[in-house]
Specification:
The chain has 260 residues and is α+β, with helices and mostly antiparallel strands. It is built from four helices and twelve strands, in the order βαββββααβββαββββ. Strands 3, 4, 6, 7, 8, 11 and 12 form a seven-stranded mixed beta sheet that branches. A five-stranded mixed beta sheet has the order 2-1-5-10-9, with no helix packed on it. Helix 2 packs antiparallel against helix 3.
């Protein structure tokens, strides 16, 4: 069975949008530090990909990579997928209850209306052709609706492609997959890795961030496409048990029928 590698990429979205660059604004982590991955928590991660040996010493069994992007300073992507919608509905219910209370007390003043309008917050529309975004109200990092364009929760970054030498040299085969995933709108990126060719192979991740802009009295998420890089290091070390340090054993060779 192929070994699963998880690679988490944290993006400083606010600073990346300000500088229009991911240089210095990404933090990479994987689950292979025990096996020699370097650059954990920096933008220079080198992910170790060990192989499995056949009895003749050749490397075998592809490995699988899974990339998980997230935005720093945003609502964690691990909350239930309906969290944002539930927060919106709860806020609407509180606002309607308050409006009903004010009406019962003798009507709503202009000051009350302005206060309620501010509390209801603003709705941001996703751009035409935008991916990975659901049109929703603006929420701050605490999950409350907001009307301020300066203190809102950034949508999760969206991976749009993976290219570079590791792909063109057919070391890894990335693809976007659909699944009932509860975090990334049902889409995620993964790749199988050929472990038969040891060496270091860089790759480029293409990422779409979203910036809130005001256009024709509407709030719109405008997409901003940027790139960042990382590296795979294919080793000749076989996979081994992370608890005991022992190997997983040699793969058997198929029996060769006798001739004669």
């Amino acid at each position: 069975m192929a070994q699963q590698h998880g690679i988490i990429v944290l993006f400083d979205v606010e600073n990346a949008l300000r500088t229009r660059s991911l240089a210095g604004n990404t933090y990479w982590f994987d689950n292979m530090k025990l096996f020699g991955s370097t650059g954990e928590g920096t933008e220079h991660l080198v992910t170790i990909v060990p192989g499995t040996h056949f009895m003749d010493g050749s490397q075998a069994t592809e490995q699988v990579l899974n990339w998980l992007p997230a935005a720093l300073g945003a609502i964690p992507p691990t909350v239930p997928r309906n969290y944002l919608a539930e927060q919106e509905r709860a806020d609407d219910r509180r606002t309607l209850d308050q409006l009903a209370s004010l009406n019962a007390d003798g009507g709503v003043s202009d000051t009350d209306l302005k206060r309620l309008q501010k509390r209801v917050g603003k709705r941001a529309r996703k751009p035409a052709g935008g991916r990975g975004l659901t049109a929703a109200k603006l929420l701050d990092v605490t999950g409350k609706t907001t009307s301020s364009a300066g203190a809102y929760n950034y949508p999760a970054p969206v991976i749009t492609d993976i290219t570079g030498p590791a792909v063109t040299e057919k070391i890894m085969y990335p693809a976007q997959y659909g699944s009932p995933d509860m975090i990334y709108d049902g889409w995620y990126w993964a790749a199988t890795v050929d472990t038969s060719r040891p060496g270091e192979y860089p790759y480029t991740m293409h990422v779409q961030l979203h910036e809130l802009i005001e256009q024709n009295d509407e709030m719109i998420w405008e997409s901003v496409d940027l790139t960042c890089e990382s590296t795979l290091k294919i080793t000749t070390d076989p996979k081994r048990n992370g608890f005991t340090g022992a190997g997983l054993g040699l793969l058997p060779l198929p029996a060769v029928p006798a001739t004669g």
